[in-house]
Amino acid sequence: MSLQPSSPPRLMVRTTDVDQTRQVFGKLYSKVALEPMVSLPFSYATQVLSFGSVHIATDEWTGGGQLAAPAIGDRYILSFPAEGVLEGTLRNEAFHGVPGQRGVVFSAQQPSTLTIGAQM
Predict the structure, then answer these.
(1) Contact call for residues 62 and 42 (beta carbons, < 8 A)
(2) How far apart (Å, rounded) are the C-alpha atoms in residues 5 and 73?
(3) CA dist., res. 106 & res. 20, Å (int)
(4) pLDDT, averaged in runs of 10, over the chain (120 residues)
(5) Other CB atoms closer than 10 Å to residue 78's CB: what's the count?
(6) What is the pTM of this model?
(7) pLDDT, position 16
(8) Which 3-state string (H, E, C) describes the chain?
């Protein structure tokens, strides 16, 4: 059986505006508190590929930052870093994403924090 996307990948945003990033990130994942790293220029881009009700998103963060989400809502999010640092807490337990080795599953209705490295 071959799984085909229901539409071609679509660019949702490419921006250097933190408020626009919060808005798009909130629609795609969860409402978050987002603070970029002060010492580096900030930019964010995301593309989404849909397979029915399953969505695959690629996020690019330049400059990194910290996010805090009170809850993810009614979904689960698998996150695997392609490069850079991905670490945080989920249900008050620390996690570390390692490119090519380890990711994290964000569970519905669970608070989480996330630190994104400068080039994820």
Answers:
(1) yes
(2) 24
(3) 23
(4) 73 91 85 86 88 82 85 78 81 85 82 76
(5) 9
(6) 0.77
(7) 94
(8) CCCCCCCCCEEEEEECCHHHHHHHHHHHCCCCEEEECCCCCCEEEEEEEEECCEEEEEEEEECCEEEEECCCCCCCEEECCCCCCEEEEECCEEEEEECCCECEEECCCCCEEEEECCEC
Q: Give the integer Cα–Cα distance in Å for 43 and 113.
A: 19
Provide the residue type at 104 as one letter.
V
Residue 58, token pair as written in the block? 């690629």
Question: What is the Cβ-side half-sphere exposure of residue 119, based on CA atoms within 13 angstroms?
Answer: 1
Cβ burial, residue 6 (10 Å; 0-12/13-18/19+)? exposed
What's the rounded Cα separation, in Å, for the pair 86 and 109? 20
Distance CA 104, CA 86 (A): 9
